[in-house]
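Hey, I was hoping to borrow your eyes for a little while. I'm sending you its amino acid sequence along with the backbone structure tokens. Take your time with it, there's no hurry, and the full record follows here.
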Amino acid sequence: MKIVHVITRFNQGGTATWLKTLIPEQVKLGHEVFLLAGWVQSGEIEDSFFNECNGTRIQNLGRSISIFDDLRSFIEIRATLNSIAPDVVNTHTSKAGLIGRLAAISLLKRNLAIVHTYHGHIFYGYFNKVLVELIVFLEKFLSRFTNAFLVSGKQVMFDLIENKICKNNNTFLVNPGLSPKNIPAKIQNNIITVGWLGRLTKVKRPDRVLEIARHFSNVNFLLGGAGDLFDELSSKIPSNLSILGWVEPYEFWAKCDIALLTSENEAQPISLIESQFSGIPAIAENVGSVKDVIVDGENGFLVNGFEQRVSALEKLISDSNLRKSMGKAAIYNASMKFGVDQFLKTHEKAYNFALNIKKSIN
């Protein structure tokens, strides 16, 4: 089948990692796969995979809202889809999900299946209440023309169904799929190192890392990633914290003993899955579908708020045996739940479902 993936921008980490795994595997199955994306925003770095897979640039597509640029993006995407004539359009992220689906719908192609992937949702943590209500309204409208949904995480799926955006019968729960190779050996240090890896932006709450680093002055903290908060955070870091910018995930986790996640909203965070493959226990805010990745008390701790973060970190810092046992559990959990096979099969199932829906309508 001919598949087009549409994403707002192809910045390093997160959704780009999702597609970096998915697209080559779909090509191996014999599918013809295309990637459409706009530009990364200031403070971000574009993943090299976009050029490696001959991605198509949508010149006016970007994360920020602009009526004129968004209209131009719609026209660009529509023309590109019309030229490719795909069987399936799979959109990713909010902006591309909106514009990409509208472009696909406007073609009025009887056999074109439309699939949207929710890598999270925007009900909290991103926008003000009025804008969230508008986005929910638009998502409900678009859901009428979307033949299938892929959702990362049980809680995210529950929230979407509860808000009447998705339905049980056309929604597929999918775990991220990773195929890590040549994971570096753990770098042994005399001092405990706590790592945080992600996009340096408000919803990810990297400021909480600075807060907890000040509390544990005898512990080393590493902050990996880039984003709009990079300069602000760099100007006020404590002496026991280093901001590294973007780094290769497995090289980063090889330097760490404990992984930390502080977000206000998440689906199934890929950074924590990567840390698990590296045998690192995690302390993570219990939001969204994080609990699908971290089993509380087994491969890490789920927490709510500063005091619980401190308590969990004290346990792991003081008990090397606990870190080792949770690290082993982390590797097992990642291997069992986040392999490529289940990831690819779920996409195939969703695409075939969507195509069959189109056939039945026609």
